[in-house]
Design goal:
The structure is a single chain. The protein is α/β, with parallel strands linked by helices. The protein has one domain: Rossmann fold. The chain is 41% helix and 21% strand. The protein is built from 4 helices and 4 strands; from the N terminus they run βαβαβαβα. The chain has a 4-stranded parallel β-sheet with strand order 2-1-3-4. Helix 1 links the parallel strand 1 and strand 2. Helix 2 packs parallel to helix 3. The longest helix has 13 residues. The N and C termini lie far apart (61 Å).
C-alpha cells in the first residue's frame, strides 16, 4: 500500500493535518526540495505540492522522477488571500443579515 503526503506552506498545512494527511512544511522552493527528495526515495504513491513551492525547480523535479513511475506529483494551487476593506466587510455583513445593500458613508 502506498502513502500520500503534502508539501505546503505553514498557512495551509493545518487544514491538511486536520484532514489526517501527512504534511511537510516548506517556506520556499529550496526548502521544499529536500522534502520532495525524501518522499520520492520512500514508498509514497502520491505527493501533492503547493504549486508556488515548485516554481523554478522543474529541472530538479524532472531529474528526480526520471525513470520512475511513483510517486505521482500533483501541484495544487495555493489559496489566494483576499483581504476586503473594513467598509466592504461591514457592508457585506449588513447585506447578509438584512437582505439588501446599505451604502455606508
Amino acid at each position: 500500500m502506498y502513502r500520500m503526503a503534502v508539501i505546503t506552506d505553514a498557512e495551509t498545512a493545518t487544514g491538511f493535518r486536520l484532514a489526517g494527511v501527512e504534511v511537510h512544511e516548506a517556506s520556499d522552493p529550496q526548502a521544499a526540495l529536500p522534502h520532495l527528495r525524501a518522499l520520492v526515495a520512500a514508498d509514497y504513491g502520491l505527493v501533492a505540492v503547493n504549486e508556488s513551492l515548485l516554481k523554478g525547480t522543474e529541472d530538479e523535479v524532472s531529474r528526480l522522477m526520471r525513470d520512475r513511475d511513483l510517486p505521482i506529483i500533483i501541484p495544487f494551487p495555493a489559496p489566494q488571500e483576499h483581504l476586503e476593506s473594513g467598509e466592504d466587510y461591514i457592508a457585506r455583513l449588513v447585506k447578509e443579515h438584512i437582505g439588501f445593500y446599505v451604502k455606508l458613508r
